[in-house]
Amino acid sequence: MQPSAAPELADLAHTLARPAHWLATATATAAVVALAGLLQPGPAGASAAPATAPRPAPAPEAAGADYPVDCAGGPSTVAKRVSGDLDGDGNPETVAVVHCEAGSGTPPSGVYVLTRGKAKGAPARVVATLVEPGEHKNVTELAVRDGAVLATLLGYSSLDVPRCCPDEKEQVSWRWQGGAFVRAGQADAYGA
Question: Per-residue pLDDT for 140 more than 70?
């Protein structure tokens, strides 16, 4: 048997596993991973928002607006109010339920959409009437969801129905479409 011309594998310096080799390999691998993480592109289509991105204006205040409600010289009151972006411009509008103050009974409500006043510091202004007080409706629930105004309206089927006891209920919504609020809803008669 002839001895091999190749040296034994154990004699080769680069095949010996020493702690210094493992440390150098781990350090190099960590450096490559860290560098790859720093050089990654951002998510597709994402762009950084400018530091001075305009913030939406606060919702209009319902208390100071001039509502088209005839209270025969008496005061009116804002019974409910909700806010949300109804026209998609990035700024919120306010929806207010307003009725005349009454010592007793339940006066009919008006539902109004408010936007900010044109001049800085000017009171909010009514830009749409969703329910006229002359419709003799009362609003029991009011919300803004996904750009739509949602309300529950109580009313009367005839003048013979006592004003204490509404016999009609409607779940209605309004959505801004084509430059106007479009109403959708479903009426239910009850308590008859």
Answer: yes
